[in-house]
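During the reporting period, we have paired protein sequences with backbone structure tokens. One record among many follows, to show the layout:
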Amino acid sequence: MYKHPPVWPSRDPKDDARHSLADAIKTRAGNHGFEGKLFNIVAGGYMDRRMRDALAKDDPEVGRILDHTPRAVSLVVGPYGTPISEIRSDEEGIVYADIDVADCVEPRQLHDVVGYYNRFDIFKLTVDRSANRPISFEESPVSPPQREEEEKADVEAIAAHT
């Protein structure tokens, strides 16, 4: 059994060499920027040597896990889903990017994110405004004695499997 800091990493990095945290972050941030036609600022934390040593001081296994865990990235993604800044990961620093919100207009016109070109000739939205009860209880077609027998059989079946 190994120990690791809470939350991250979620598993020993030697068990999953296929996972690239940097690629996962860039993909999610790019998708968010593209789908929303917006700028996405991603700020990843940086762990310097002093922090690493403090976390691993009582357990060398923790140090090994920290040393091999993928690092987060910091970047700015534009409304087309592509990075518009440098991508920082292995050193502390600030990521800079020039952002012009007017750059969001054209992509929003090309990609309908709010449904302005709905097909009213083939789709219809209906809202039922009548008062509805969120929960309704219906009587069981099984008689109470029969229900008790079924419940008893269920309990016995569960007990047999434990």
Q: What stands out?
A: The chain has a mean pLDDT of 83. The first helix runs from residue 21 to 36.
